[in-house]
Every structure is written in structure tokens, then in C-alpha cells.
Amino acid sequence: MATTKVKQPEQTADVHESALNELFIDELKDIYWAEKHLAKALPKMAKAATSEELRTAIQDHLAETENHIIRLENAFDSIGENAVAVKCEAMAGLLKEGDEIVAETEKGSLTRDAGIISAAQKIEHYEIASYGTLKVLAMTLGYNEAADLLDATLQEEKNCDSKLTCIAEAGINQSAKGEKE
Ligand code: FE
Ligand code: FE
Questions:
Q1: 93 CA → ligand 2 middle, Å
Q2: How many A from CA of 144 to the centre of ligand 2?
Q3: Ligand 2 centre and the CA of 126: distance in Å?
Q4: Which of 28, 78, 89, 147 has the fewest CB atoms within 10 Å, i.e. is most exposed?
Q5: What phi and psi, each to the nearest 5 degrees, are found at residue 177?
Q6: In the chain, where are the structural domains located?
């Protein structure tokens, strides 16, 4: 049997000089950009919402998002890194999709709310995936304080996602069903 030779990366004794450490910091910079830009976009999304319930949920999550930004700054600080934002193409794309949904749905309609919820949940799922990974990487690298901060945000993102599901299923989707194109 032919053996293929795979070059093994060099090992480092100090985990904080590892390639994984660099990956962790890069991902932290990505979500930092994502949260900052989300905080700018949420007021617009809240304003576009039809139902008071959805508007309030988005405004509540804006307050949480502002706290997510602070937690990330604290996480950077806890590992002795400067808080730097590097463009997150995924969040930029998700926010663009959200804008398109608002542009394509009628003002004052519940179909618009169903669309905003769809866009918002895609954003939350991106954040859940990011924070889940970041938390585990922080634990692996021995960054316990950062891991706790990331986990606190992760729980809030999950709660927000569940709340959006409840709002959609409690009536918006059913009412939107009767709206004409
Ligand atoms: Fe967040
Ligand atoms: Fe969020």
C-alpha cells in the first residue's frame, strides 16, 4: 500500500504561541465586528417591524447586544489582546439579506414580521455557532475567564432565538398567512 506523507506541523510547548491560539483570536475579532455592526442594524430592524411584540423583542436584544460587545472587550482584555474588529463577511451578508426582506415586504404587514424573524434567527444561529466554538476554544487554551464571558453571551443568543420562535408561532405566522401578495 502506498503511503502518503503528510507534513506534520511543528509542536509548540506554549499553547499561547500555538496556531490554535491565533485561530481563536482571529475568530474573536470576527465576532467583535459582527456584534458591532449588528448593534447598528437592530434599531432599523425594530423600526421596520409591524407588531409591538417583535419590536420590543428586537429592542431588548439590542440592549443585550451592547453588552455582548462589552463582554468581548473584556474577553480580549483577559487574554492580554487589544480589541480589534475584523470584517465578518457572514454577518455583512446576513444583514444585507435582512435589509432586502424589509425592502421586499409591505410596511405594516405581518408577512414583514415573519421575514424579519427569519432574518434575525439566521443571525442568532450564526452567533450561536460562533460563541459555541469560541467558548470551547477558550477552554482548550486555558482562557477560563474568556470562556465564562463567551458562555454568558451564548446563553443570551440561545434565549433570543427561542423567543423569536415563540413570537412567530404564537400568531404572526398564522395572521400573515391571510395577507395578500
Ligand atoms: Fe450577540
Ligand atoms: Fe444576538
A1: 15
A2: 22
A3: 9
A4: 89
A5: -55, -30
A6: 19-176
Q: Which ligand is nearest to the CA of 65?
A: 1
* pLDDT tens digits for range 145-174: 999 999 999 999 999 999 999 999 998 888
Nearest ligand to the CA of 36 is 1
For 65-97, the pLDDT digits (tens) are: 999 999 999 999 999 999 999 999 999 999 999
Distance from the CA of 127 to the center of ligand 2, in angstroms? 6
Q: How far is the CA of 160 from the centre of ligand 1 (A)?
A: 9
User: Which of 142, 133, 16 shows the shortest CA–CA distance to 81?
Assistant: 16
Buried b (16+ CB within 10 A) or exposed e, 30-39: bbbbbbbbbb
Instruction: Quote the pTM value.
Output: 0.93
Distance 58 CA to ligand 1 centre (A): 12
Choose the CATH number for 19-176 among 3.40.30.10, 1.10.3660.10, 1.10.390.10, 1.20.1260.10: 1.20.1260.10
